[in-house]
Design a protein that fits this description.
Elements: E1 2-6, H1 11-22, E2 26-31, H2 39-48, E3 53-56, H3 62-72, E4 76-79, H4 86-91, H5 93-113, E5 118-124, H6 147-165, E6 170-176, E7 178-180, H7 199-207, E8 214-217, E9 229-230, E10 232-234, H8 235-248, E11 252-258, E12 264-265, H9 266-277, E13 283-286, E14 295-296, H10 301-307, H11 315-337
Parallel strand pairs: 1-2, 1-4, 2-3, 4-5, 5-6, 6-11, 7-10, 8-13, 9-14
Antiparallel strand pairs: 9-12
The structure holds UDP-4-deoxy-4-formamido-beta-L-arabinopyranose.
The site of UDP-4-deoxy-4-formamido-beta-L-arabinopyranose (WQD) has 21 residues, from strand 7, helix 7 and strand 8.
């Protein structure tokens, strides 16, 4: 299949790209490189032994996107391009609106203009906010508590509307809970060009000696140990979900939770990471981050039933693969500095 992946050099996009190229798909990557680097393309070419095309385009550039969709003969789009940090979105709501909602709107215009009506959309479990039910099923009402999750909820509404107004659209939204881990080679990982902010990269930064302590943002949540609970799913399981969703696209709009159904608290994760890294991870408690919720855990049964996918990797697999990538990055940095 000829697939365009927007945000293709990002954490999720790059791992999907590698898997699809290895499977023989014709993949075009689009990324504005605002939070990733083109180094990823070299790794994908080296790991797969196959060519892959990267265009440095912002998805909001409709004319260039129309040209590329036509030139590539795109049959389906996986739309990952978006800013994704909860805390940052509270500081920069305008940027998140323009980048995430404006970007999706522009992509829809370009796709419509080139009759590319098959889309897999990167959504998020954080649209549910402080959900009444845990684990959370797909029919839980949206209650976004920050501009990031609001931008994804609005994105889903725009896509649902497109699919309702024109039977040709085939759209699936995948509501990721917390993607984590890294490619088994250690050569692709969650490596933003900007500062890290997600928990597992932060924890491994401490384990690697790059950060003195892990700041636990909130220990007064309504959870067993007071710290935030999330559903960490291995990036390889997230990739499998995209490939299954592409194969299963049908007219209309569908949404699936992409998670394991298992919740892990910050302190539980610290303990698991100390075991994998074989290093102590000192912590200090800080106030909650604005917009953070106590717990987000997926009910993954619909994705299992309809897409035939079920998380197969464990938290230990996540931490082992992420730690391998972190140590490789440290070796590379030392080599560069030496
Ligand atoms: C997890 C927990 C923090 C950092 C992410 C992505 C978002 C979406 C969902 C894909 C929370 C705590 C964190 C730290 C901490 N993914 N924490 N100290 O906020 O759930 O969102 O997953 O769509 O794009 O950003 O993940 O890893 O930032 O936080 O205590 O230094 O860890 O309070 O409870 P989050 P996170």
């Amino acid at each position: 299949m000829r697939v365009m992946i927007t945000g293709g050099t990002g954490f999720v996009g790059s791992h999907i790209a590698l898997a699809m190229v290895e499977a023989g798909d014709e993949v075009a990557l689009v990324d504005n490189l605002s939070n990733s680097t083109a180094d990823v393309v070299r790794e994908i070419r080296s790991l797969s032994g196959r060519e892959i095309d990267l265009r440095e385009i912002d998805v909001r550039d409709i004319d260039r996107m129309v040209d590329l969709l036509g030139e590539h003969g795109t049959e389906a789009i996986i739309h990952c391009a978006a800013a994704k940090h909860v805390a940052e979105s509270i500081e920069r709501p305008g940027h998140y609106w323009d980048n995430n909602v404006g970007g999706l709107q522009a992509l829809l215009h370009a796709a419509d203009a080139t009759d590319v009506r098959r889309i897999v959309f990167s959504s998020t479990g954080s649209i549910y906010g402080d959900a009444d039910r845990l684990p959370i099923p797909e029919d839980e009402p949206h209650y976004p508590t920050n501009p990031y999750s609001k931008s994804k909820s609005v994105g889903e509404q725009a896509l649902r509307l497109a699919a309702q107004n024109c039977a040709d659209w085939q759209i699936t939204a995948l509501r990721y809970f917390n993607p984590a881990g890294a490619h088994r080679s250690g050569r692709l990982a969650d490596q933003p060009a900007g500062p890290i902010s997600n928990l597992i990269p932060m924890i491994l930064d401490v384990a690697a000696g790059n950060r003195p302590v892990l700041e636990v943002t909130g220990d007064d949540f309504d959870t067993p140990d007071g710290t935030g609970i999330r559903d960490y799913i291995h990036i390889d399981d997230v990739v499998d979900a995209h490939i299954a969703a592409l194969a299963q696209l049908e007219p209309g709009f569908q949404a699936f939770n992409i998670g394991t159904g298992v919740g892990t608290s910050v302190l539980e994760l610290v303990e698991a990471a100390e075991e994998v890294a074989g290093a102590p991870i000192p912590t200090v408690t800080r106030p909650r981050r604005p917009g953070d919720v106590a717990a987000l855990v997926a009910d993954p049964t619909k994705a299992d039933r309809v897409l035939g996918i079920r998380s197969e990797r464990t938290l230990h697999d996540i931490l082992t693969d992420a730690w391998r990538a972190r140590r490789r990055a440290s070796r590379q940095t030392r080599h560069l500095v030496a």
